Fold Glycerol-1-phosphate dehydrogenase [NAD(P)+].
Amino acid sequence: MTDLARASLEHSGGAMTTTSRPGALDAVGSLAASLLAGGSVVLLGDGVPKCVGGDDVDARVEAQLAERYELRHVVAPAGAHGVVLDESTVDATAADAEGAELIVSVGSGTVTDLAKVVGARLAVPVVAVQTAASVNGFADSLSVLVQKGAKRTSPSAWPAALVIDHDVLADAPDRLTRSGVGDAVAVWTSPADWYLACALGVDPGPYSDAFTAPVRDAVVAMTAPEATDAERMSGLVDALTLGGLMIGAAGSTAPLSGCEHLLSHVLDMRAMAEHVEHDLHGAQVGVASVVAAALWDVALHDERILDVSVDDLAPPADLRERVLATWAPVDPSGALGEECWIAVERKVVRWQEQRGGVAAFLADRERHRGELERLAGDPASCAAALAAWGAPTTFSALTPSVDADRARWALAALPFMRDRMTLADLLLFAGRWDDALVERVLARAGEAGGGL
């Protein structure tokens, strides 16, 4: 078990303390008192009841604060997709929390992200009470927002205190825990995308195993076949919390967010634009991790993508048209396509500025090939880890199910959404990104227990 209290102080530069143990919920009052002697406190939640041992979690938190503080309840506005952190949600919550001297959030990763961004806007500390082991975003200084319909990661603030009560997590819905497993398993593929971007010079980097190895080690513990249920849950908590800490320390989600997270974001964006439901972020990431590992397998071994020359690599002349065409069926107004093109264009500019870095990368291709083989992961291992926890491994097993056409579209859309370089972009620039490649990747994922 990792000493998360020590790790939190170390990687946050002293900005965040973490209390992680059974019964940690009872520490909320003393943690709040260490930050604010008295005054106005906002309790931020999503209105969904959460229980531990038959007790209401919100009520137990409120009971610890009621005598010392002037309390206000703020419930994040929810729509068809639950709480979505778009501009109107953030603005409305910040207005409702105006005048608070401390925010205590109780809820999911989305509620915590909202608390962090509102806390940063109002310049007040946040005590985050984590109610499920569902994502790694509780323990970092970033928030995933929806800006003009597109998923974007933005700086916010570290929680001043993070409370992880293992009893609360154990009583959370199994679906949320399985989502956390999907988010954690991504570490078996995502570092390869970050390494690639850094080695090409498109990401300033530099790449370092220090941001990924601790999470990999924790994921091994959470998937050990001989582990007890308590040990596996402890490993999951470690994997997610360390993942958040590494992201916060790096100042970017890049170390733990590659093609697999991008695929989940693309699915979210289409669902939101079409006003239909989508599954939890981590559940989608888990399924996408099997696909991402298969993509690396096909790219390295079938396509031999590292054997290209500098002259073989160039952004397609019709890239803007391809970005707009990708998103036009989702948003006929063209606004979402234009927002994505702005991001993709930034990526192209950095690529063009780093031609020397690309040449140096290819000159040392064998060393880079070895590193990418090490980091890219095995699709069968990803699928087996998910299956061991009862998490979905295929698009059709998601809730709601993602049909084959939508899955193919989402995979094909990977280079056309954001400004971060991934393997999908390298394949696009090499002229290899087409429907036939998508089919081979999905077939390879299917052979490993994932895919459609």
